């Protein structure tokens, strides 16, 4: 039996767990999330791709077998119900509010019955034609809604604070708010596994400026990072750092190259990997890329115990 706390944690965790049986298609979740000022951090998980490549290893874990017991009771099945997950968060907010969009085919009626069966009462509300169901425990509040047959929307906040991201996602779906990918120029690789995008606020710039190693990032505007995998499980890691000017970008490239050379001299067995790192500049953006062969990991991903 779920406790209230464990169920709320699991609801959010479902959006961060791998699994899907969807056919391959271009990433879409970044076009669902709002590109508003309070969306300072964003993360994306391509659960379809992860399960296609590493599903056998994931399903073999004892935790996954335990999770399947909840699926039988009506919880979403991440092997078939979830395609992509996107998360936006307001890092400047004391409440730590986050908004989540899950693309797939979650069965809303079954999920609500499951919540009720676990003794979790929920309140009902509506926003622009979308019904939302509020669930709360002593630490977390969640608003859960089903925007259409392919999009599940959640917002999460600590305590009982006001929530807005679920409404902003609905507004984005209706085309009345510019999406995150449009505002930031994001283009997720078709074969990506996961990606993050951080807007450098004044607070983050000040933190960067206070440390000698991170000081060059104090002039940055946006930092993105992604991991992609080929069908052969070769990995591509890419970090993009958008600076205020092209001059700043060229300066950062030189600094990062200097750091890389210094670390490489002391890297020992890791030196061959560091030698594969490329640091280039495209206008105002510094790109750091690294390709790793799949056999470096024995042809399969390591799965945490």
Can you describe what's shown?
- Helices cover 30% and strands 29% of the residues.
- With 305 residues, it is α+β, with helices and mostly antiparallel strands.
- The protein folds into 2 domains: 1-184, no CATH class; 200-294, no CATH class.
- Strands 4-5-6-7-3-2-1-8-9-10-12-11 form a 12-stranded antiparallel beta sheet, with helices on both faces.
- It is globular.
Write the layout of secondary structure elements.
Layout: H1 4-14, E1 41-45, H2 47-59, H3 62-72, E2 82-89, E3 98-104, H4 108-117, E4 123-127, E5 130-136, E6 140-148, E7 151-158, H5 165-173, H6 180-184, E8 192-199, H7 202-209, E9 220-229, E10 235-243, H8 246-264, H9 271-274, E11 278-282, E12 285-292
Antiparallel strand pairs: 1-2, 1-8, 2-3, 3-7, 4-5, 5-6, 6-7, 8-9, 9-10, 10-12, 11-12
């Amino acid at each position: 039996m779920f406790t209230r706390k464990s169920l709320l944690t699991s609801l959010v965790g479902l959006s961060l767990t791998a699994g899907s049986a969807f056919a391959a298609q271009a990433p879409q979740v970044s076009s669902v999330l709002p590109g508003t000022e309070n969306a300072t951090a964003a993360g994306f998980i391509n659960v379809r791709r992860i399960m296609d490549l590493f599903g056998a290893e994931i399903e073999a874990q004892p935790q996954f077998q335990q999770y399947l017991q909840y699926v039988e009771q009506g919880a979403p099945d991440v092997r078939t119900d979830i395609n992509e997950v996107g998360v936006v968060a307001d890092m400047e907010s004391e409440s730590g509010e986050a908004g989540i969009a899950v693309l797939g085919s979650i069965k809303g009626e079954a999920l609500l019955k499951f919540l009720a069966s676990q003794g979790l009462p929920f309140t009902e509300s509506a926003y622009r034609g979308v019904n939302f169901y509020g669930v709360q425990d002593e630490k977390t509040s969640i608003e859960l809604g089903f925007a259409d047959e392919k999009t599940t929307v959640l917002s999460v906040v600590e305590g009982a604070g006001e929530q807005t991201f679920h409404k902003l996602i609905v507004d984005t779906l209706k085309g009345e708010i510019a999406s995150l990918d449009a505002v930031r120029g994001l283009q997720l690789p078709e074969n990506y596994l996961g990606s993050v995008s951080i807007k450098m606020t004044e607070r983050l710039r000040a933190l960067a400026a206070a440390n000698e190693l991170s000081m060059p990032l104090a002039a940055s505007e946006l930092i993105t990072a992604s991991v992609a995998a080929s069908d052969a499980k070769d990995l591509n890691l890419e970090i993009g750092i958008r600076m205020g000017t092209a001059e700043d970008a060229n300066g950062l490239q030189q600094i990062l190259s200097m750091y890389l050379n210094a670390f490489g001299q002391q890297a020992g067995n890791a030196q061959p990997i560091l030698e594969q790192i490329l640091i280039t500049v495209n206008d105002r953006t510094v790109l750091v890329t690294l390709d790793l062969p799949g056999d470096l990991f024995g042809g399969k991903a390591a799965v945490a115990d």
